[in-house]
Amino acid sequence: MRERSLEIILYVLVVCITLLSCKRSTVMHFYRNVPVEGWEHSDALSFPVDTVKESGLYDINIGVRTTNDYPYQKLWLSVAVEFSNPDTVFTDTVACVFADKNGVRSGNGTDMYQYDFNLGDVNLQKGQTGRFTIHHIMRREIIPGVSNIGVRISK
């Protein structure tokens, strides 16, 4: 009986270690501040990407931090992705949903809210360098309440 319990514990331990080892590792993750007086449509935020160390599929996430001053349920972003050698260029539109139709926020936080939005996977080659350029595409020229925009790349 005692041997059987030990086998079960070892089995559970091996399964847990296997599951934890499958987690993606973050290659790059940083934020840019947005002007406190508001984010103008013409203010594009640029995120340079250093040389890619290993070829493969990379997961791209866009992070948004807002304050209680953000007046809308959504934020529409244009994300331009450019990598060289070989050239990889595309632009995507991201609908960042912050609240449901009743105005209940879905982000983490109390005075400042943190949201993450998946852009999908990108196949990158060793030696490539690149840049993400992000700006809002809202109808209003200046958007209040957005404090930071970020990019996270995971492998």
Overview of the molecule:
The termini are far apart. A hairpin with a 3-residue loop joins strand 5 (74-84) and strand 6 (88-97). This protein is 13% helix and 52% strand. It is mainly beta. The strands form three sheets. A four-stranded antiparallel sheet has the order 1-10-4-7, with no helix packed on it. A four-stranded antiparallel sheet has the order 3-8-5-6, with no helix packed on it. Strands 2-9 form a two-stranded antiparallel sheet. It has one helix at 2-21; strands spanning 26-33, 39-40, 45-49, 56-67, 74-84, 88-97, 112-124, 129-136, 142-143, 146-154. It has a single domain (25-154), classed as Jelly Rolls (Sandwich), CATH 2.60.120. The chain is built from one helix and ten strands, in the order αββββββββββ. The chain is flat.
Give the strand order of the largest sheet, numbering strands 1, 2, ... along the chain: 1-10-4-7
Tell me the number of helical segments per DSSP (H or I, 4 or more residues long).
1
- Please give the largest β-sheet: 4 strands, antiparallel
Low-confidence parts, pLDDT < 50 over ≥5 residues? 12-21
Q: Please name the CATH architecture.
A: Sandwich
Structural class: mainly beta
Domains counted in the coordinates: how many? 1
The shape is: flat
Distance between the termini: 43 Å
Total strand segments: 10
Query: How much of the sequence is in beta strands?
Result: over 45%
> Radius of gyration, Cα only, in angstroms?
20 Å
Top CATH class: Mainly Beta
CATH topology: Jelly Rolls
Which percent bin holds the helix content? 10-25%
